[in-house]
Design a protein that fits this description.
single chain; 239 residues; alpha/beta; Dihydrofolate Reductase, subunit A; 10-stranded mixed β-sheet; two-stranded antiparallel sheet
């Protein structure tokens, strides 16, 4: 039976781009695309089998990346503890350094890397460094931080692969800027009608394409059940 973990491993091993690490988007949603009832509020979606799969995927990547909203809402550890490691280095996108010095991610076996804007507060940086984090300053983009600059910095630091788990703004930004190579998406058989995983791929600033093949897709896509959930995965393709 096809295995997303082994396939991602092979794709990472074949990655030779010197500008950025290999990026896998990996997240869980309900059938209608919900990841939370409201923004910045956690909603347990994955079943035990897909939780274990997530930790297996984490253990195959050098880094695991989330936005600060996920850190504030879920207070995650970002380890691969369900499979005994190895643990990826936590990476947090936090332009204004809102991560709390007491966040559980700062107890991680590997020092987290927090990417902040160049104008972020120096005192906040000092507090986080004292708590065990490494703070890297990068330029701002039109919205949020410059993701390409962030990935280039990670590549310079020796990262071959990064797994991106969320939240919605971060996932959407990686797709909009075509910076991800693979996606592994867990589908839980529920209909919630809440906050969706992807927001703003179609914007009001320009007429949206009327052709489905103009949007990001998995090509080829594969899928299989894990417990009560379905997992869909594959390389990302662009129009």
């Amino acid at each position: 039976m096809a295995d997303p973990v082994h396939e991602v491993e092979r794709a990472i091993a074949a990655w030779t781009d010197r500008k950025q690490p290999f990026v896998t988007l990996a997240y869980a949603q309900t059938l209608d695309g919900t990841i939370a009832v409201h923004p910045n509020e956690g909603l347990g979606i994955s079943c035990p089998e897909t939780k274990r799969l997530t930790h297996q995927l984490r253990s195959r990547h050098d880094g695991i990346l989330v936005g600060v909203g996920t850190v504030l809402a879920d207070n995650p550890k970002l380890t691969a503890r369900r499979v005994g490691g190895p643990h990826p280095t936590p990476i947090i996108l936090d332009s204004r350094l809102r991560t709390q010095p007491t966040a559980r991610v700062l107890e991680h076996p590997k020092p987290p890397i927090i990417f902040a804007a160049e104008d972020a507060d120096d005192e906040r940086e000092a507090e986080l460094v004292l708590s065990g984090a490494r703070v890297e300053r990068i330029p701002r983009a039109d919205e949020g931080l410059d993701l390409a600059a962030m990935l280039a910095r990670l590549r310079d630091l020796g990262f071959q692969s990064v797994m991106v788990e969320g939240g919605a703004y971060v996932l959407t930004s990686f797709l909009r800027e075509q910076l991800a190579q693979w996606a592994v998406i867990t589908l839980a058989p529920y209909l919630v009608g809440g906050y969706s995983a992807l927001r703003g791929l179609v914007t009001d600033r320009e007429p949206p394409p009327q052709r489905l093949d103009a949007y990001p897709r998995l090509e080829p896509a594969q899928w299989r059940p894990y417990g009560r959930d379905m997992v869909v995965w594959g390389p990302l393709a662009w129009a």
